[in-house]
Amino acid sequence: MKRLAKTTCLLLLLATAACRLQAQVEHDVFATPHTLSAADKGRLTLDIDNLSFFQNNEFKHMADGYSLPGLWLQPRLTYQPLPNLKMEAGAHILYYSGARRYPTAIYTALPSLDEDEGSRSLHARPFFRVQLSGLSGKLNLILGNLYGGSSHRLVEPLYNPELNLTSDPESGLQVLFQSRVFDADVWLDWKDFIFQDDNHRERFILALSSQFKLTPPDAALHAYVPLQVVAQHLGGEIQEAEHHGVSSTANAAAGIGVRWQARRRVLHELWAEAHFLAYKQLSGDLLPREDGTAWHATAGVNLAKGFSFKAGYQKSHGFISLLGSPYFGSLAATDDHTLYDHAQLLYAKAQYTHRLSHVASLGIDITLYQHFSGHGLAPATGELLPSQSSASILAGIYLRVSPSLLLHRF
Q1: What angle do CA 48, 49, 54 make, to 5 degrees?
Q2: What is the pTM of this model?
Q3: What residues pair up with 298 in beta bridges, in sequence order?
Q4: Looking at the DSSP assignment, which residues form a beta bridge with residue 54?
Q5: Are 61 and 371 in contact (CB under 8 A)?
Q6: Which of these ranges, 68-72, 169-173, 265-269, 270-274, has the smallest mean pLDDT?
Q7: Segment 212-236, tens digit of pLDDT
Q8: Taking residues 96-103, what's their average pLDDT?
Q9: Which residue has the higher pLDDT, 69 or 6?
């Protein structure tokens, strides 16, 4: 009870601070714009995209705590031979402060260091992207590295914003469509490629993030219906026989949202969303539960000078998130992988963002989680564990710097 009272007080303090304190870190710092400009035809530029971060996760119960001090750097040569065609080539380099060796793994989050798999002195990946735009910019086809992460606008139970820091750039195929009544982002992210007679399974993610606009986006009261699906597949027909096996899992979110654009001196925007979430294991036995559901509701306010506040509640029944934080699912990320069939989450988030022209964006994020769980089941032993509650906090500061140097105009 003391911990719950302390957490409640902290939530109230955050709410009070937000009322004194329009933007969100996920949008202003993590996301990457994809719009092409006809004025950039014939330009060859050196683009240096950098995200420096320091995030501390004081987690309890559902995940172990850890810190993320570091940065990633993407130097790229960009050329736009046509008004609607752009090519980019470069590298993605990840560095953690104090790290002297890195796992030789595909970074889908913070990977484990396995001595048997070897390590490198730095984690670097090639970066290539080709983008073709059509229908007056409404339709975009992307091959190679995608506009990923928070650019997909997935709800937080389906995508953990921390992946913007730790994971490799998504790569594969992406189709973006935007109109006044409907937006869609469809992508295939090929996480793990295999060769003939390889000794592991290929892995890819197929996903959709869409939004039906019930009223115009620029209206004072904007209502919309989001529909999102994230499916993961592991398998492959050309791997060695002993490693054969297919596993497919999926998450889905459907809901309704409303935004009131007040456009006042202090109060810029009020918004609220409600989602029904689903999890399903389509094939295989990778995860210890076949299906699950959850209800997720959020509300927020965007204020002047870059301050925003958000609060949310989720009630889960066996819901497992494929790419989300463990706090939005029923499966603990700790070593015992305890499964909590019934869980509730109350959380609050305060954020500050500041744009420095078009070159840089600063973001600060503080999130408090209060997690309540029913009885748990340890999948490895079948042991029934008592219900638990825990309070956790996430705090981070992020600086995105993306200068562009014109080398030549053809």
Answers
A1: 130
A2: 0.90
A3: 273, 312
A4: 69, 397
A5: yes
A6: 265-269
A7: 999 999 899 999 999 999 999 988 7
A8: 94
A9: 69
